[in-house]
Amino acid sequence: MTATVGRHAQAAARANDVWKVYGTGEAQVAALRGVSAEFERGRFTAIMGPSGSGKSTLMHCLAGLDSVSRGTVQIGDTTVTGLGDSGLTKLRRDKVGFIFQQFNLLPTLTAQENILLPMSIAGRKPDPAWYDTVIDTVGLRDRLGHRPSQLSGGQQQRVACARALVARPEVIFADEPTGNLDSRSGAEVLNFLRNSVREHGQTIVMVTHDPTAAAYADRVVFLADGQIVSELIEPTADTVLDTMKKLDTPVEVAG
Amino acid sequence: MLRATLKSLLARKVRLLLSGLAVVLGVMFVSGAFVLTDTLGRSFDAVFADAYEGIDVNVAGKPKVALGEMQGEQVAATVPAATVQRVREVAGVAEATGVVNTDGAQLIGGNGKVVTSFGPPQLGANWRGESDLVKLREGREPRADDEIVVNAALAQAGKVKVGDRVGVLTPLTPKQTFTLVGIFGYSGDRDSIGGVNEIAFTTPVAQRLLLGERDVFTNVTVRAAPGVGDATLRDDVARTLGDGFEVKTGAQLSADASASLKEGLSFFNKILLGFAAVALLVGTFLILNTFSIIVAQRTRELALMRAIGASGRQIIGSVVLEAVAIGLIASVLGLGAGIGIGALLAYVFGNLAGGLTLAGIGVPASAVIGSFAVGLLITVVAALLPALRAARIPPIAAMQDVANPDRPLTRVTVTGGVITGIGAVLLFLGLSGNAGDNALPVILGGVLFAFIGVALLTPLISRPVVSLLGAVFAWSVPGKLGRLNSGRNPRRTAITAAALMVGIALVTGVTVILDSAKGSIGALAQDTIKAELVISGASTGPRPASFDPAVLTKVAALPGVQMADGEYGDMGMVDGKVTWLAASSDVTALQRIFGAKTTAGDISRLGPDQMLFSSDSARSRNISVGSTVTVQASRGEPRTYTVSGIYESSELTSPVQLPPQAVKDFAIPKPNQGFIQLAPGTRVADVQPQVEALLADSPEVSVADRDAFIEQQTGSLDSLLTMIQILLALAIVIAVLGIVNTLALSVLERTRELGLLRAIGLRRAQTMRMITVEAVVISVFGALLGIVVGVGLGAAVVRALKDDGITDLILPWGQMGLFLLLAAVIGVVAAVLPAVRAARINVLGAIAHD
Ligand SMILES: Nc1ncnc2c1ncn2[C@@H]1O[C@H](COP(=O)(O)OP(=O)(O)O)[C@@H](O)[C@H]1O
Ligand SMILES: [Mg+2]
Predict the structure, then answer these.
(1) The pLDDT of residue B305 is above 80
(2) Half-sphere exposure of residue B501, counting CA atoms within 13 Å on the CB side?
(3) Structural domain boundaries, residue A67
(4) CB of A104 closer than 6 A to ligand 1?
(5) What is the pLDDT of residues B724-762, one digit of tens each?
(6) B388-403, pLDDT tens digit by residue?
(7) Distance CA B246, CA B229 (A)
(8) What's the structural domain count of chain B?
(9) How many domains is chain A built from?
(10) Do B581 and B493 belong to one domain?
């Protein structure tokens, strides 16, 4: 990891020796054991690993949704660790966007209202040109007045992507954004995410356990048993799968 | 953010409206009370302004005994005829008329019954000729001593016509017979002013019958000469007459008269507001519960909002905004309903009062302000806790499946314990008389704290009790599931049950108190009144029923009658302090009928200048045998008496006992009750008809044996109890709404689970049974809590009233069993809609839900 030190100024998010321990005594589970990682600006990073390896936990800690047991987390030049509720709220407003696996949208609001919700919560106006660009890239212009229940799963996720993008956050965290989608809708969403990185310089950190999804990323970080065990630059589905296979055995032991 | 809030509100409108209904009902009471009092108040103003229109200045005697509002009717001193002449001679007086005018002149109608009135006075007056206001419609004016005229309203009510021989009762005299020679009405072709019945005699007869003196008047009405101001004339007249008279302008007179009626109204108003408070307390529980459930259901939604940047304050804001919206809607609806109810009640009231002409229905600012203040405040306060909880939802909850883990109950239990403790202390202070003048608010505060405290303790109790209650139903699978569901969320179950608790606790508490009072009084009377027959009657107006004292002499002469005693009473002053004065026609009755025991001196005889004291009042006034005291009755001059004996205080004895000679100065110098003791071996049934025959001319009273008399005496408590129960039933209805609401929300929340149950084979009927069991368990739990709390409160009050004669604690077991049964029925009823809804859940849809 020392190789990344020189790129400090470029990092959109960074974890320094992060530990996360759930429970106490007998029931203690160390979900993260000393994770250090950097996620560069303008890149699409995937976090991979078998189920239970700590992917979601790492993402939650990075995004300030959960506190760390030890170590520090930074987003841009903000140290997340130790922030209070109002600091975290400000962070979420200004610097972070989220895409979840499911339940991304408020069922009572239309697609457009959902997309604009973070801005209206923060009391800001979206940049109209950027808004138009986002809407056109997600290709939902004719669906803006629809409620989530009137949209397909893929469309819903694209609305969620648009919502995350509109505010132009420092970094977007996505936790298995295609986990609930069929392969075609999944590909649409992933393409869209990759394009927003390539064309608009957005930073995205995506958690997934699907090698095909990970192949869309510029870089893949592998997690096993709460530790970073490997890394791939410019991955393909095959190289990801190979790496995963190699990791399988120790995880089984740990699990 | 605002839009997101409003949209989510719209999506939940039915649920929210249901809980808002409780607020609507509470607000309805508030605005109804204000509208009613305002409308009636203005109607009274109009009536009196009209009745006193022809009076510029009025002169009356000062009352000999000045009474407070709740102490009874004041009797004004009379004005001598000479004073009328003196008034007439004051410069600026155009006309001065001596008026005899008192309440309590009752006509015996064509059917032999006294014409009664609810509220408006029954005036007896001297005929002062026709005027702008008064016009004869039929017949002529009264000229002879045995001639009267009555107003058209009374002629109609009594079904009498010109030429009839009619009986008249006055407070001072037994029945007299007159010829009705005329019927009069009022300007504007009215039969009555404000429902008042009026009988007019010739002036000498009016003086004798109504005032008991010759050449005196109740008051003098004065017309000012042109150009003389009322206030100036009043001051001139007052200066001429000096002390001892009350001189007022007509406007003052009308305002005073109206004000004293409004005083009564404000009492009624307070009762309505009291019930509003109960409804709103229950409503608070309901809203709190609804919002808690909604917040729990929206956990993921709220967490998502937090994740995308909403601050805790914004979340609180959005929940409170929903509350404000509901509060506003509920206040508007409640205000509207209240105006309707107020108008309706005013109409009913107006009719009851014998055709009070209602001024237009008024919506005073107080009704509007009160409605919105109360409606908004209650809703927002109730939503505050859930809002705070919503703000504490971590954003990470958006990604977790199980959203609401069971929070420990320690904090809520400790808080509940503390609040219950505060309630108990307040109750103790209030009931033990340590709070002085603030006793009532302190007691009410104690009750409120007790309710809230117990409600907070309820989650802790709910688990074991609900599981015990549910065990009754555990023989079937749906029953078992229902039981488990009701124990699933102790807070929710608890608050729902607590809403029912409030209503049931109040009803139970009141029942315990009134039953105990009734039982204690009955037992005491049973043990101590040594009379086989009792003459008494229910009062039909402000003054108690009375009868002709001559009857007693005749009864005493009947064979088999050992003693016939008449009891008199008056609000008078003893050494300047307002005191209830009692006198017996037979002095020995105190010992022989009421079983009084001698504390000091001799209580078996009483000379005309001697009086007796009860031991309590003797002690508090520092009086002993041989002391002299000054007594002023309602009428006449003050008299000095020597205390010749002191008797032991009991519930049946009065503070002081005067000799029979004193009753001539009482406001009503006629006995209110008669006690007849029979010689051993005489049959009650033999004597009773003879006494009845003697009472033929005293239609206000009747004779009853002792049991029937005790029943009569405590009967008023029964009607009071019924009235309170009816009004409190409303609180219970609101609680039922709460159960419906909670169940409906729970069903919605468990859509998936219900679908699963249906998918694995639970039949529709079984689904419905499951929901019903849950409802019954919750409502029976609430009733049980209510009964326990109610008995506790009732027992505390009864204990505190021990010195006031409520010695026995009587628990209404039958009533309490009935409440439990009722609660079960309530549960079944409340379950109907949610159960139908649950049974209708589409299996596939439910599983695919989300
Ligand atoms: N709230 C929690 N309480 C206790 N243990 C947890 C919690 N969340 C996650 N874990 C544990 O931490 C480990 C990592 O979980 P997670 O980050 O969700 O894995 P992944 O997303 O890679 O499947 C797992 O062993 C899981 O059981
Ligand atoms: Mg995960």
Answers:
(1) yes
(2) 31
(3) 11-248
(4) no
(5) 887 778 778 878 888 888 888 788 777 777 776 776 667
(6) 888 888 887 776 654 4
(7) 18
(8) 3
(9) 1
(10) no
Q: Which of A102, A117, A141, A142 is nearest to B8 (CA)?
A: A117
B176's tokens: 């007299």
At B144, list the tokens: 């002879």
Whole-number Å distance, alpha carbon A209 to ligand 2 midpoint, is 9
Residue contact A89–B306, C-beta within 8 A: yes
CA distance B315 to B296: 13
Does B37 reside within a domain? no
Query: Is residue A1 in a domain?
Result: no
A56 in contact with ligand 1, CB cutoff 6 A: yes
Among B175, B190, B214, identify where a domain stops. B214
Distance in angstroms (rounded) separating the CA atoms of residues B578 and B632? 9
Which strands form B93-99's sheet, in the order they lie side by side? B93-99, B219-224, B57-61, B245-249
Q: What is the pLDDT of residues B671-683, one digit of tens each?
A: 988 999 998 888 8
Which residues in chain B have their CB less than 8 angstroms from residue A108's CB? 4, 7-8, 10-11
Domain end, chosen from B652, B673, B697, is at B697
Shortest CA gap A152–chain B (Å): 13
A253 pLDDT above the threshold of 50: no
The C-alpha R_g of chain A, in whole angstroms, comes to 18
Cβ-Cβ contacts under 8 Å between A and B: the total is 74
Q: Kindly report the CA angle at B452 between B448 and B453, in degrees rounded to 5?
A: 110
Atom of ligand 1 nearest to the CA of A50: 22
Q: Is residue A176 part of a domain?
A: yes
**SS3 of B586-630:** CCCHHHHCCCCCEEEECCCCCCCCEEEEEHHHHHHHCCCCCCEEE
The answer as to whether B514 is a domain residue is yes
Asked whether residue B739 falls in the same domain as residue B632, the answer is no
Q: Which residues pair with A222 in a beta bridge?
A: A48, A230
Quote the pLDDT of residue B843. 63
CA distance B567 to B673: 5
Report whether pLDDT(B14) > 70. no
Residues of the domain holding B574: 547-697
SS3 readout for A70-104: EEEEEECCEECCCCCHHHHHHHHHHCEEEECCCCC
Domain assignment present for B66: no
> Torsions phi, psi of B629, nearest 5?
-135, 155
B663 close to B583: Cβ distance less than 8 angstroms: yes
pLDDT tens-digit readout, B401-458: 544 455 677 788 888 889 889 888 888 888 777 766 777 778 888 888 888 888 888 8
Which of A111, A113, A118 lies closest to A148 in space, CA to CA? A111
Q: How confident is the model over B221-235, as pLDDT tens digits?
A: 998 888 888 888 889
CATH number at residue A31: 3.40.50.300
Does residue A254 sit within a domain? no
Residue A253 in domain: no
